[in-house]
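For the sake of transparency, this paper describes our internal protein records without simplification. Because each token names a local backbone shape, the row as a whole describes the fold. One such record is reproduced below, unchanged from the form in which we store it.
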Amino acid sequence: MNDLATVEAPVLDGSREHAPRISVVVPVFNEERNVAPLVEALVGALEGIPGGFEIIAVNDGSRDGSLAALIEEAKAHPQLRIVDFRRNFGQTAALMAGIDHATGEIMVLIDADLQNDPRDIPMLVDKLAEGFDVASGWRRDRKDARLSRTFPSRVANGIISWISGVSLHDYGCTLKAYRADVLKGVRLYGEMHRFIPIYAHWMGGRVTEVPVRHHARKFGRSNYGLERILKVLLDLVVVKFLDRYLVKPIYIFGGFAALSLAGSIVTLAVMIGLKVFAGVSMISTPLPLLTAMMFLVGVLSLLMGLLAEITVRTYFEAQNRRHYLVRKLYNFSRGA
């Protein structure tokens, strides 16, 4: 069989002449034994869906034979396309690369460990046909260790739902289906791939949750530990900040500056009061130092807010971006 065509730097123009309807993005890291059964299961589940499909497998710097296994499967399945990273960049980067290289109008994300079931993909796609923009998988009967995986995940999901205002039972389930236009312009870092439904909701997208099957891992081992919970929560703080203050950072910096300056005024008043009414020497208390520190912090926070405002304006102007999104225009002439 002929060797696969390869390119050094894939072109991200998204203009393939016969783009498939569905693009499945799979991050792969040390999943050598799962590659063949995964590809077979994906092809079997997708062949019956009209419009065609492609599978974008992103080899995230695997140290085993995952890349070789993917290449062998690609020789037998022309729908399989491979993006090979130079080193391990993490799951979010792998998903972002897959999204960047995908051309389908519907994008499905799925893990390579076979714990997600490819047979659930048509069900998620059908949900999009009902008018939803995101169909998120919910591992209701999860086959993971309760103490180290399931319980912490439930706690994290509850916190994320409370902070974001988007109530989902299972943010950690990679198996999700999206309309491609929902993902346009989304840039992901850290562990932020799980927050895509939040981005979609904030941009006016309709999000639904669908119970999906979950299987115990057969081969390999999980690459995640309890430390991921802290990373996820910190990323959530960033996401919330970007949503609330990306175009108006002076509000949060200015608010903190106001609190600090108000605190310095209060401590100054207390210090003077102790001196006048109780005869307490100012230098015998930590109040002078506390007053000076809070005043300086307030001034510095205000200056940081002004710098952030300048940076945000430079960012939007340099890229000719707007801080709003338009879904459609009605009754506008093309020449207007």
User: Anything to note?
Assistant: Residues 113 and 315 are 39 Å apart (CA to CA). The two ends are 55 Å apart (CA to CA). The chain has two domains: 22-244, 249-318. The longest strand covers residues 22-28.
